[in-house]
Each structure stands twice: as C-alpha cells, then as structure tokens.
Design goal:
Elements lengths: L3 H10 L10 E4 L2 H7 L5 E3 L5 E6 L2 E6 L9 E3 L3 E4 L2 H8 L3 E9 L8 E10 L2 E7 L2 H22 L1
Antiparallel strand pairs: 1-2, 1-6, 3-4, 4-5, 7-8, 8-9
Length: 156
Amino acid sequence: MIAVELARALRTAGLRWHPRSGDAFVIETLERAGESGAAGEVFTVSEMTAEVHEFPSGTLIGFNGTTEWALDSVDLADTLWLPREDQLREILRDGFRSLTAEQLPGEPGEESFTLYVVTALIRGRSRRFEAESAVDAYAEAVLDLIVQSLVADEDD
C-alpha cells in the first residue's frame, strides 16, 4: 500500500479523487478519526461497507452495517485516497516505460533488499523513480508528472 505521506503529497500537488468501488482511503481529520476510534485504519469503498453518496452540498462516504466504532459517514474532504499501482500507472498513461525490481545487497550483517524502479517519460525526458515498494515508485513518478506540469504551466 502507498505510504500515507506520498498519498498526502499527491493530494497537495493537485491529484483529485473520484471514489470508486475498490478504492482505499484513510480518514484524515484527526478530530473525526479520534472520535470514532478509526485513526490510522484503512477503509475500502464498497457497496457493502463504505458507499459513496453524492449530494448537492458535496460527496460523503457512508458506512453501512455495524462496525466496531460509531461513524455513519465522512465528508470526502476528511479522507485521504490511497491510490493503487494500477491507478497510478493509468495516470502516467503513455509516459510509463517500465517497472523493474533490483536486488541490492544490504549492509554487512543485513539482508539484501529490493528496490523498485519506475521509468517514465516526463515532459520529454526519461526519468527514474526508486522506492522500496512498487506503488511508492509509481507515486513518485506521478508526483513528478504533476509538479512538472504545474511548472510548465507557470512558464507558459
């Protein structure tokens, strides 16, 4: 699963969420999460448990059925989307070139580890994004795509 800090950076950079079944999210607002006992818990949009409701005043995610804590609904603005690999790859579109996994030796006495590398074409340049998980490597690439697009818009 994507690191919460990266998901937050994507949202701050301008990535918008239009909830669909199967999407994962956390409740961002500390006061709301603290009230419900759901702090740090990951939820999945599903017609069975967490359903999206569109109202003229905004989008709410309603919780159906019984849960261990009392929370009927949460405003979309109070949530943080945790995009999956496939969703991030879709955002990269034709710019995505490859995902590779490199086995690297650890420090003496430590185990080796895997480094995931996404290669993407961003504004005409081949770029490499490394992370300890594939989804975070994709997220780094999407974040760079958004930032480079914003910089390009300012230059125009």
